[in-house]
From TrEMBL:
Boundaries of every DUF4140 domain copy: 31-121
Coiled coil: 95-177
NCBIfam families listed in its UniProt record: mucoidy inhibitor MuiA family protein
Pfam families: DUF4139, DUF4140
Keywords recorded for this protein, A-Z: Coiled coil, Signal
Domain of life: Bacteria
Signal peptide limits: 1-19
The protein, known as: Mucoidy inhibitor MuiA family protein
Length: 520
């Protein structure tokens, strides 16, 4: 080990061993955005030695920090969130470029300022000449020549003053024209100061590297995410549904992500990764009025309460998917409402009207179809029918290949009426030997629209799980489905209703229960 260390020291110059770190900026190049959180990738070009990479967001988690090299062997990595080591020379390429620009702008501004100063010196010389003329003595001037002298002096003063005014006006115009130069110099100085003295509140990375190449720095940001949204466009004539998939993205990482490659992932690295823990169930017996622990008195045991708390955490179903956005994206820090369009999914669907006369007075437009090869994530959706917006809804989670049913608004011309023309109860009072109730319901559906509609009417009859409570019914016409969608007692009638047509449905329900009992 000692001989290896000695040979290593011999291959490294003393200056390299004790050189100050070189400050090198790293550019955010790509972001993988999760529903909650983001993985941010930066690239820095290095030439080995100690590299100081400023500008990481304040509070960067070292446990999620990863540094890899291409052509560079990465040694120790230190995340600094307070006092930073002094960066050595030479300057980083970015600092050297900005400093050279500052020097060039300073030199150009100085030359133009000197030229203006020379102009103003010429104006001063003209005024001095005018002052000399004003002070000229006329003591020994003959009276005959005095008038010509006065005229000559006056013209000389006037010409000198005019020359001074002209030069000063030119100098003012030249000075005003320097405004863009001064602004460019000030911006360059601010850029240099930002590179030389990174803003407080950011973290810095110190990397031991050998070789020349690039460093890839990956961090995880918790305060970021994306959520899906949809525009659902129904073509009722073609029986086709177009789903425009949109995403809303956000981030508050403390920095802007400009011109990054964006990937959207359905993975949830910030969520739980293991199933709920199941606890043993203890049973006990005792007198009916024996006191019970408070948790049991409410109907829940401690294990039940713990499992209910766990169940409140949402979990994704299905495979993890990623979506690569095709163009570079700017995602500014703390700015909400950036919406991007992913793509459009076209699916064939069937369209029918669905009526629930028990609760509604109009039928609703329903679309039924099957999802494609990838799931549709839950999110808000705007609904359009034949180009016109008809409402909004929340699209549920739809697994790949799963059937879906979506509502697309009311059909005002399909009117519903549900009446109970008569009801009777056999037997009166609790001492009756037997009780019975007969109820008749009549449903009328009328189509006042100019088109034919395939229609599904849903209604219900009571059901019983007690052997002594008998429920029977007669329907005219007979329903096409009973216990519809596995809902006990729900009946469905499916038929075509032509424009201007109507249809009546009658249901008579009979309930019988033992004497001395009441119907609840």
């Amino acid at each position: 080990m000692r001989s290896f260390l000695a040979s290593l020291l011999m291959t490294v110059t003393p200056a390299a061993l004790f050189a100050a770190p070189v400050e090198t900026p790293a550019k955010v190049t790509s972001v993988i955005l999760f529903p909650q959180g983001a993985q941010v990738t930066r690239i820095a070009t290095v030439e080995g030695g100690q590299v100081l990479i400023p500008g990481l967001p304040d509070g960067t988690d070292i446990s999620t920090l990863r540094v890899t090299g291409d052509g560079v062997a990465v040694g120790a990595v230190t995340l600094i969130d307070d006092r930073q080591p002094v960066a050595g020379q030479p300057d980083s390429p970015a600092v050297a470029e900005v400093r050279a620009r500052v020097e060039t702008l300073e030199q150009a501004l100085a030359e133009k300022t000197d030229a203006i100063a020379q102009m103003r010196a010429g104006a001063g010389a003209a005024r001095a000449r005018a002052d000399v003329l004003r002070g000229a003595s006329t003591q020994n001037t003959p009276l005959a020549e005095l008038e010509n002298l006065a005229r000559t002096v006056g013209e000389g003063v006037r010409a000198a003053e005019q020359e001074a005014l002209t030069i000063e006006a030119q100098a003012r115009d030249a000075d005003a024209a320097l405004k863009p130069d001064r602004e460019a110099l000030e911006q360059a100085r601010q850029a240099l100061a930002a590179l030389e003295h990174p803003a407080k509140g950011s973290d810095t990375l110190l990397v031991e590297a050998s070789g020349a190449g690039t460093l890839t720095i990956t961090t995880f940001v918790a305060d970021a995410g994306w959520s899906p949204a949809y525009d659902l466009r129904l073509d009722s004539g073609a029986g086709a549904l177009a789903l425009d998939r949109l995403v809303s993205v956000r981030q508050a990482a403390g920095e802007d992500w400009l011109g990054v490659d964006l990937t959207l992932s359905t993975a949830r690295p910030s969520d739980r990764t293991d199933p709920s823990e199941i606890w043993p169930e203890q049973v006990r017996f005792g007198p009916p009025d024996a006191p019970r622990p408070m948790a049991e008195a409410t109907g829940f045991r401690k294990a039940d309460i713990a499992m209910m708390a766990d169940a409140a955490v949402p979990e994704m179903q299905g495979e993890t998917l990623t979506y690569r956005y095709p163009a570079a994206v700017d995602i500014r820090d703390g700015v909400e409402g950036l919406r991007l369009k992913l793509d459009t999914i076209d699916r064939p669907v069937s369209l029918r009207a669905e009526a629930v006369p028990l609760l509604d007075t109009t039928a609703y437009r329903m679309v039924e179809g099957t999802a494609g090869d990838e799931p549709l994530l839950p999110g808000p959706a705007a609904l359009f029918v034949d180009g016109a917006m008809v409402g909004s809804a929340h699209l549920p989670m739809i697994a790949a290949g799963a059937e879906f049913r979506l509502g697309f608004g009311a059909i005002d011309g399909l009117t519903l009426k549900r009446v109970i023309p008569g009801a009777s109860e056999g037997g009166r009072g609790l001492i009756s030997r037997s009780n019975a109730r007969v109820e008749t319901v009549r449903i009328t559906v009328e189509n006042l629209t100019p088109r034919d509609w395939p229609l599904r009417v849903l209604d219900r009859v009571p059901y019983s799980e007690q052997d002594d409570l008998k429920v029977t019914y007669k329907a005219d016409p007979a329903p096409t489905a009973t216990d519809w969608k596995d809902k006990r007692g729900v009946l469905a009638w499916e038929f075509d209703l032509p424009a201007g047509g109507n249809r009546d449905i009658t249901v008579e329900t009979t309930l019988n229960w033992p004497a001395g009992q009441v119907l609840q």
